[in-house]
Amino acid sequence: MALLRTAFRAALPPTLPIAAGFLFFGGSYGLLMHAKGFPIVYPLAMGYVIFAGSMEFVTVNLLLSAFDPWAAFLLAIMVNARHLFYGLSMLDRFRGLGWKKPYLIFTLIDETFAIDASVHVPTSVDKGWFMVFVATLCRSYWFGGITLGWLAGGILPFDTKGIEFVLAALFLSILLGQWDDDRDRKRDDGMRSRSATTNVMDSARPHVPALVGLLVPAACLALFGPDRFMIPAMTLMMVAFLMLRPKLEDAGGTDAVLNGETR
Amino acid sequence: MMTMTTWQAVATIAAVSLGTMLTRFLPFMLFPDSRRPPKTVTYLGRVLPHAMTGLLVVYALKDVSLFSGSHGAPEAIAILTITLLHRWRHSMLVSVAGGTIVYMMLVQLVFA
């Protein structure tokens, strides 16, 4: 019991900032599901078996379009492809944890990855239980947010028309945050190794992944239309990245956080 | 409102769950003894996450019509709002809440 208590006490503080975000986004998701006429069991069940915020929002659209589980399956893989790389970085950390390992993999998301990979756990704290508590806390914030948002949907004194824009707003603000990260990384990189000649090409380079992610899908959307552009867009993005690899790889070097080279 | 039957909805959610779980479990199935992943995989791991966000932005805006209705004006104004809020506060919560509220007001009051 003492083992569990110390692990819980260590796990709670780093998850608190996430609680605010999850109550808000889980709340928006619950509100959106209520506005679209879904019973509460839908968002809760989706939160339980998917537990990937972006994809849960996207699934609302999928449920409101024509039935196509194969496309849904492929889309889920592409949207959540980053988990593959979180997993690759956590191979060592999750090793030898018995039943906790499949649970930690089942609940792996951006936030639990960020905490588990970065927080320094004292040796007196059981690492397995620490990570299990981080995951259960994050999940309970998410379920709490969904429930509050869905319940609020029934008593809100205003019209929820337009609430679906929360999806675009969420993705756009993630993109803007990543854009700044790319620029800052480039600045660090430039100070250390590059000459003062910064031209347009050079300052654009750290943003190439984000630009490919915007321009290729936009072009495919114009060509194939809103119902058929996702698969060609995902395919073309992979092709583009494999072709751009020689150009992008030498610029990368500094951000080995996600691919496990720092450990 | 949903046009699917309950079973189609369950199948859709199951498909999304399976796809998502595959992305979580696959690395641990492929590299059980912590073998080093190939270079191409680590390279894609670095560039794909940021590109997928761009794809999701386009996906979320895919049904906006530039040539009919309000010609994407509420969306454009909301996007501008989000960008400015981001510049100002650098808080995801503020940007998302602000952008969504502005959009809801625009479609309910201005472009209704």
Automatic annotation (TrEMBL), chain A:
Ranges annotated as spanning the membrane: 12-32, 44-64, 70-91, 129-151, 163-179, 207-224
GO biological process, one term: L-valine transmembrane transport
Pfam assignment, any one: AzlC
Membrane topology: Multi-pass membrane protein
The keyword Metal-binding is annotated on this UniProt entry: no
Family recorded in the similarity comment: Belongs to the AzlC family.
The protein, known as: Branched-chain amino acid transport protein
Species assigned in the record: Bifidobacterium cebidarum
UniProtKB/TrEMBL annotation, chain B:
InterPro entries: Brnchd-chn_aa_trnsp_AzlD (IPR008407)
Superkingdom to which the source organism belongs: Bacteria
Membrane as UniProt keyword: yes
UniProt keyword annotations, A-Z: Membrane, Transmembrane, Transmembrane helix
Pfam families named in the record: AzlD (PF05437)
Chain ranges passing through the membrane: 6-31, 92-111
Protein name in the entry: LIV-E family branched-chain amino acid transporter AzlD
Organism of provenance: Bifidobacterium cebidarum
